[in-house]
């Protein structure tokens, strides 16, 4: 075991948690903010260090990579909570439903239907969030804000998908606070309790604006490989 690495990651997790709770207190946020440690493309020893530090909530953006990393560890750590935070293709839905506890990136009817079918087929229960393309960027995944109400309605009324939140990734060259405020408003207006927003560079702003989940990668693990 690499002691320096272990203590660095423990320290990063503690400091991030502290910063989150200080900010949440400052704005009198009611709900506790969950720290999703984004482990994509990180060396295995750093993941183990986070697990040894007691952390259990992780985010991954690719199904295949996540399977390789987490399938075995699931048995060892039954209290793991895995979030899918990257785009999902319909042909990977089966694997995604098998592995992840929370699927944060539903953004189109076809994908929502495929997940609903798989949940029905397996009898599994999963939490689902809708990803919103708040910046209306062409290349980016996420449903456009003006198409969000129809997608939510389809999920809730027709597909009986358990939509419990929303998520966004703001454009890189814009002030993220505007996007966080928009996403929070959409959650509130639709009675959705979970709001996943904020990464290493802007999670403090996200907490100020009412995030319930922040997704921090490099801030905990260091630069990716
Ligand atoms: C990689 C990633 C993150 C974490 O980014 P950092 O800058 O390393 O904190 C958060 N959210 C999503 C969707 C990501 O793909």
List ligands, each type once: pyridoxal-5'-phosphate
Could you tell me the number of beta strands?
A: 8
**Portion in beta strands:** 15-25%
* Net shape: globular
Gyration radius (Cα, Å) is 17 Å
Unreliable residue runs? none
Helical content stands at 40-55%
Helix-strand pattern: HEHEHEHEHEHEHEHEH
Largest sheet: 8 strands, parallel
Q: Give the class from helix and strand content and strand pairing.
A: alpha/beta
Report mean pLDDT, rounded to a whole number.
97
Number of helical segments with 4 or more residues: 9
Strand order of the largest sheet: 7-6-5-4-3-2-1-8
- CA distance, first residue to last residue: 20 Å
Describe this structure in words.
This protein has helices at 3-26, 44-52, 63-76, 93-99, 109-122, 148-158, 176-189, 203-208, 218-221; strands at 34-38, 57-60, 81-84, 102-106, 127-131, 163-167, 194-196, 213-216. It is globular and about 50 Å long. The model has no long low-confidence stretch (mean pLDDT 97). Helix 1 (3-26) crosses helix 2 (44-52). An 8-stranded parallel β-sheet has the order 7-6-5-4-3-2-1-8. With 225 residues, the chain is α/β, with parallel strands linked by helices. Pyridoxal-5'-phosphate is lined by residues 38, 40, 61, 85-86, 169, 199-200, 215-219. Pyridoxal-5'-phosphate binds next to strand 8 and helix 9.
């Amino acid at each position: 075991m690499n002691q320096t690495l272990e203590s660095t990651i423990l320290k990063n997790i503690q400091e991030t948690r502290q910063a989150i709770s200080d900010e949440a207190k400052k704005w009198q946020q009611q709900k506790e903010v969950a720290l999703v440690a984004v482990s994509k493309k990180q060396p295995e020893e750093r993941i183990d260090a986070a697990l040894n530090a007691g952390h259990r909530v992780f985010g991954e953006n690719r199904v295949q990579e996540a399977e390789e990393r987490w399938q075995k560890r699931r048995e060892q750590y039954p209290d793991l909570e895995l979030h899918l935070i990257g785009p999902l293709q319909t042909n990977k839905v089966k694997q995604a439903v098998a592995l992840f506890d929370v699927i944060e990136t539903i953004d189109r009817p076809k994908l929502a239907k495929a997940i609903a079918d798989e949940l029905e087929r397996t009898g599994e229960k999963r939490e689902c969030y809708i990803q919103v393309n708040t910046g209306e960027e062409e290349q980016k995944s996420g449903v456009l804000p003006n198409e969000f109400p129809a997608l939510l309605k389809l999920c809730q009324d027709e597909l009986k998908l358990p939509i419990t939140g929303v998520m966004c990734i703001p454009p890189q060259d814009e002030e993220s606070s505007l996007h966080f405020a928009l996403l929070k408003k959409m959650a509130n207006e639709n009675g959705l309790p979970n709001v996943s927003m904020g990464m290493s560079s802007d999670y403090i702003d996200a907490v100020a604006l009412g995030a319930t989940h922040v997704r921090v990668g490099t801030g905990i693990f260091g630069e990716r490989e």
